Amino acid sequence: MNNQRRQLLLKMTAAAVVGLFLLDRFVIEPVLQGWSEQTTRIAALREKVQRGRQLCERETALRARWAGMLRANLPEDNSAAEYAALKSVDRWTQTSMINRTSLIPSPWQHRDEGFDIYECRMSATGNQASLGRFLYELESDQSVPVSLEECEFATRDPRGSQLTLTARITFLRLKESSKKTTP
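Now predict its structure.
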C-alpha cells in the first residue's frame, strides 16, 4: 500500500508539474506579454495626447505663422517668382553694401510634398561687417521664404579685411494645392 501511495503521489506531482507548465506556457506568459504590450501602447497614446494638447495650446500661434508663410509665398508664375527672389537678393546686397561678383540661379525643383524650390549660388566680397549684415538681412527677411543652405568665407588678405562669401540660397514656393488646404 505504501508503494501505491507513493505512485499516486508521484502521479499527482507529475500532473501538477505538467499542469503548472501548461498554465505558465498558455496562460501566464500570454497574459504578461499582453500587459507589457498594452503598457507600451498606453505610453505611446499618452505621448500622442500630450503632443496634441501642446499643439492645441499653440494653435493660434501656429495658424498665425502659417498665414504669414502664405502671405510671403512666392507667386505661382515662375518668372514672377524668380523676379521676386532676385529682387530680394539685390535688396540685401544694397543694404549690406557688399560687392556681388556672381549670382547663378538654378532651374526650379518641383517637389511632390507640396512645394517648389528655387536655388541661387552667389559669390560676393566685402569686409566682415558688411558680409555679416548681408547674412542678417537674408535670415531676418519676412517678405520671402528663404533659407541659407551653404555659406563659406575665404580671404586672401593676410589681415582678413577683405573676405569672399560663397553661398547657396534656397527660396521656397508653396504649391496652390497646399494653399487650399490651409486651416
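Residues 177-183 have pLDDT under 50 and may be disordered.
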